[in-house]
Structure formats: structure tokens, C-alpha cells
Specification:
125 residues; mainly alpha
């Protein structure tokens, strides 16, 4: 690691654009960490499960259980990183909701579109 401190960008958040850019930078940096931790957990579990040293009577099942217990901590870390990323997104959305009431929120596409005509209910007779 370098001696330079880690920052997400300009910390002077005096405009909506600065807050949006800061949250986008945070999300862009944090999101890949989630996947990295999940992959590392899988690799660690596989390496520990195949390592020698288990009890001979358990036929390797004890190694797999212990490997899963150790790798679980990385999986929990990945879940927490995912929550951090979601909260960064919620920060900007909350700002828009509470401080920019005149700006319409992002519209979502409807889940189901009723495009059948009146009368037959869409069924052929």
C-alpha cells in the first residue's frame, strides 16, 4: 500500500452534484469489493477443505465443516460490504426526497402492463 490516504473524492459536499458524484464514486469503489470477498471465501473454503489434517474416522467431513466455519467470516464481510453500498445509494436518494421535493423521483416501469382491449378480457372465444 502507498503512504497516501484513501479518499473517495472531494469531501466538500456543498452541492447536489458533489453529493451525487461522491456517492457514485463510493459505490463504484465499494461494489467490486463485495464480489472479491465472495470469491475469496469460496477459494479459502476449498483450500482448507482439501488441506490434510482431518481426523481419519470422519473421512474429511470435519475438515469441510471447519473450512466452512472459517470462510463464513469472509461471507459475512461481503454481506456487510453489500449493505454499505446500499446505504450509500440510500444517502443520495434520501437527499433527493427530503431536500429536493420539487424534483420527481426516478420512475419505475410498471411490473405488469394491462394492454388487452376492453370487453373480452384478452381471451379468444
Amino acid at each position: 500500500m502507498t503512504g497516501k490516504p484513501f479518499t473517495l473524492g472531494d469531501v466538500e459536499l456543498y452541492s447536489a452534484k458533489a453529493l451525487r458524484d461522491y456517492c457514485a464514486n463510493a459505490r463504484g469503489l465499494i461494489r467490486p469489493l463485495h464480489h472479491e470477498l465472495l470469491i475469496s471465501a469460496e477459494e479459502l473454503e476449498a483450500a482448507l477443505a482439501s488441506a490434510p489434517g482431518g481426523h481419519w474416522a470422519a473421512m474429511g467431513i470435519d475438515q469441510k465443516v471447519r473450512a466452512r466455519l472459517v470462510a463464513k467470516h469472509l461471507r459475512h464481510a461481503a454481506e456487510n460490504v453489500e449493505l454499505v453500498c446500499a446505504n450509500v445509494i440510500r444517502t443520495y436518494q434520501s437527499y433527493r426526497k427530503h431536500f429536493q421535493p420539487g424534483v420527481p423521483a426516478a420512475r419505475r416501469k410498471p411490473m405488469f402492463i394491462h394492454d388487452d382491449g376492453p370487453g373480452d378480457g384478452g381471451y379468444a372465444a
